[in-house]
Amino acid sequence: MGAKGFIGSAILRRFISTEIPALGLGRPEWDLTSADAGIRLGSALRKDDTFIFASAVAPCKNLEMMQQNLVMADAVCTALQRTPVAHVVYISSDAVYKDSKSALTEESCAEPSSLHGAMHLTREIALRQAFPGPLTL
């Protein structure tokens, strides 16, 4: 998801170049802010899929952008609850962590100081609650 964006398109190109079967989903055909996005996406998923979620309005700079990003996350969570997949990968951001002069690790405390970081952390939490399977952040 997000195959037309900067990160999503790079992931899709890599899969294609290494002959890994992939289906790139992106705008305008797949608008995660549309009212029926979760139901449509859930119908397109298969139980043996790995779903990569790279869609975002980024960087998130204001409350309107935050709201759009949370609507997108809600659609993905709805889809995953309708059709659980084999694995979910969410492309998040190091902005979920507090700025630090020390190196960040998986054990670093998530303390975002920006709307962008708060948006990604909220989406991470929503995915954890909606999807009981393997989740890579």
Could you characterize what this model shows?
This protein is mainly α. The chain is built from four helices and three strands. The chain has helices at residues 6-17, 37-44, 63-82, 115-130; strands at residues 50-53, 87-90, 135-136. The longest helix is centred in the middle third of the chain and has 20 residues, at 63-82. The protein is globular and about 40 Å long. The two termini are 15 Å apart.
Task: Write the SSE topology.
Layout: H1 6-17, H2 37-44, E1 50-53, H3 63-82, E2 87-90, H4 115-130, E3 135-136
Parallel strand pairs: 1-2, 2-3
Helix pairs in contact: 2-3, 3-4
Feature tags:
globular; 7% strand; 4 helices; 137 residues; three-stranded parallel sheet
Beta-strand percentage range: 5-15%
Strand order of the largest sheet: 1-2-3
Major sheet description? 3 strands, parallel
Taking Cα atoms only, what radius of gyration do you get, to the nearest Å?
A: 15 Å
- In N-to-C order, the SSE pattern is HHEHEHE
Q: Please count the helical segments.
A: 4
Specify the overall morphology: globular
Q: Helix/strand/pairing class, anyone? A: mainly alpha
Residues in helices, as a percent range: 40-55%
Q: What is the first-to-last residue Cα distance?
A: 15 Å
Count of extended strands: 3
Q: Which regions have little confidence, pLDDT < 50, spanning 5+ residues? A: none
Average pLDDT works out at 95
